[in-house]
UniProtKB/TrEMBL annotation:
It comes from Neisseria mucosa (strain ATCC 25996 / DSM 4631 / NCTC 10774 / M26). InterPro entries: Homeodomain-like_sf, Transposase_14. It holds the Pfam family HTH_Tnp_IS630. Residues 1-115 form the Transposase Synechocystis PCC domain. It comes from the Bacteria. This is Transposase. Gene3D superfamilies: Homeodomain-like. SUPFAM superfamilies: Homeodomain-like.
Length: 116
């Protein structure tokens, strides 16, 4: 559960006045760990703003992926990922969603050998 910034500030002000983490946590009905995290956040960033998570900054162009795979059928997933600037797991996921199968290994013989 995300707490509001003013609630966080009130809890930190109470902690600074009393100097006791456990008492402050009980007063505001939060865990000690939460209070420690807010103190660390205040030291690191200087504010109590929520940290934003990373994420997929750019979408991979599906047509570019199709074109690259058509031009380089022997390319490994890590090579495709380097070309597109993404991770190998992203490439694998996209290939699966686009229903593009990778090169399969050919059987060693076309005809089955008969056993005597």
């Amino acid at each position: 559960m995300a707490y509001s910034i003013d609630f966080r500030q009130k809890a930190l002000d109470h902690y600074e006045q009393h100097g006791n983490i456990s008492q402050t946590a009980r007063t505001f009905r939060i865990t000690n760990r939460t209070l420690y995290q807010w103190i660390a956040l205040k030291k690191e960033t200087g504010s109590l703003q929520h940290r934003t998570k990373g994420g997929n900054s750019e979408r991979i162009d599906k047509e570019e992926l199709r074109r690259y795979v058509a031009e380089h059928p022997d390319a490994y997933q890590y090579e495709i990922a380097q070309h597109l600037g993404c991770t190998t797991s992203n490439v694998g996921y996209l290939l699966k969603t686009l229903k593009i199968t990778r090169k399969k290994r050919q059987p060693s013989t076309k005809n089955k050998t008969s056993k005597k």
